[in-house]
């Protein structure tokens, strides 16, 4: 691969669409060359969008839910011959529905593999190099979902609670190393997440959502400022996160149920589907 040291170098996972793509654009707009990765073929068109901004974009199509995918990504990073100045560990999936009666076990375990295991795996590989150089920035895409039990998103919310705790813990461990760690905590964002997770007929899926470009901008600025976390998007996201710190989990779980339970959307706000997925097998989606 081309070895250019004219720009800083960033890595973004889950970058074919949504928040990940917008984060990659933020890096490019601020003079970073970017290595982007996702499981789907959309990563190539994402690279063309980023390349049009100016700096170089290197697309890699990989499945980070598999350990070998993480190892291949790290090998690709090493092959660049350039230090990683910043990494946005953003790849994630969701699975909406009743845990005991609807979501397939394979979907729940795949979610854990991507949202939790691969996050730890990739962070372990990249963070040690940053510590050795005594510089670097790590951004984890967490969520305000991390602050509450997620009825009808049980495994997803639990995975984000892990990411949030993990990011804050290693931030403390690395506080004297020159390496900063930031957690990006968006609320409901206007991506394909809810549609592809079979959540169109939920109140949150049919409701108003934040602009992923604005969420990414806030995340990038927090990362560059070395902040510990940022609650991105609308003011109501900050209100929701604040409430989550004072209400008991039993109440929070019930509040989440009202947003995420199938059939809670107002009928006139549900987007019609030409081909509706089977309700018992929710799809997975990059965030």
Overview of this protein structure:
This protein is an alpha/beta fold and 287 residues long. The chain has one domain: 3-Layer(aba) Sandwich (Rossmann fold), CATH 3.40.50. The protein is built from 10 helices and 7 strands. A 7-stranded parallel beta sheet has the order 3-2-1-4-5-6-7, with helices on both faces. α4 links the parallel β4 and β5. α4 packs parallel to α5.
CATH topology: Rossmann fold
Q: Using only CA atoms, what is the Rg?
A: 18 Å
Q: Give me the CATH architecture, please.
A: 3-Layer(aba) Sandwich
Main beta-sheet strand count, sense and barrel state: 7 strands, parallel
- Average per-residue pLDDT, rounded, comes to 89
User: Briefly, what CATH class?
Assistant: Alpha Beta
Q: Tell me the series of helices and strands, N- to C-terminal.
A: EHEHEHEHEHEHHHEHH
Provide keyphrases for this structure.
287 residues, alpha/beta, Rossmann fold, 7-stranded parallel β-sheet, 10 helices, 13% strand, disordered C terminus
Element layout with pairings:
Layout: E1 8-13, H1 18-29, E2 32-38, H2 42-51, E3 57-61, H3 67-79, E4 86-89, H4 105-133, E5 136-141, H5 154-173, E6 179-185, H6 193-196, H7 203-206, H8 212-225, E7 229-231, H9 235-244, H10 249-260
Parallel strand pairs: 1-2, 1-4, 2-3, 4-5, 5-6, 6-7
Helix pairs in contact: 1-2, 1-8, 3-4, 4-5
Compose a concise summary of this entry.
This protein has ten helices and seven strands.
